[in-house]
Amino acid sequence: MTWRGNGRYTLTPAPGGLALVQDLLNTRRSSRGTHDDLLSSVRSAQEWANAAIAEWAAAGGGRGPRVRIRAADVEELRALRDQLVAVVGNEGEPSPAELSVVAEWDSGGRLVLEPAGTGWQVVAGAVLLEVHRAQLLDQWRRVKTCRSPVCLAVFYDRSRNNSAVWHDVRACGNAINLRASRARAAARAGLARPAR
């Protein structure tokens, strides 16, 4: 299995369970129209949730509870995704969500938190647990949206100084840098021309 949302952009998943959050954010329809919304229907949302929760469990995030997605769940998942997109882009805060978690002790004496509920609540609980964990580990600031206005992929910035702005410099950065360079050259050329 692979992360379906991240795989569409050939992204390296964020570390551990944070990849679940990244994958949810990358379920959106791409602005170029090259990728459909993975949460567009009950069927596609169920397929995404099955794969994502399985990957999350494999990454050590939890036990991977079975999730049954219904029509109302799809709307809730989209709303959660849109709120998180705004948070990652520093454009807003999510609305409070009434979700439950189950706390248990594992055999090693560690407290384990698992999402509870049904449908979208299980996915949302897992996502918000991972956001919280990422904040505690100071990883959340590394989750970013590609600055290319035609891309908008959400990536995990692995640069040493957390300075990356494109999910792929070759695919998105080079085109923008080239346009900016040409605009600066044109501006310099325009200033250098003698007045008539």
Overall description:
The model has no long low-confidence stretch (mean pLDDT 87). It is built from 6 helices and 4 strands, in the order ααααββαββα. It is 45% helix and 8% strand. The protein has a single domain (4-192), classed as Jann2411-like fold, CATH 1.10.3300. The longest helix is centred in the C-terminal third of the chain and has 24 residues, at 169-192. Helix 2 packs antiparallel against helix 3 (42-58), helix 2 crosses helix 5 (120-136) and helix 4 packs parallel to helix 5. The chain has a two-stranded antiparallel sheet with strand order 1-2. A two-stranded antiparallel ribbon has the order 3-4. It starts with a helix and ends with a helix. It is elongated and about 75 Å long. It is mainly α. It has helices at residues 4-7, 18-25, 42-58, 71-88, 120-136, 169-192, and strands at residues 101-105, 111-115, 143-145, 154-156.
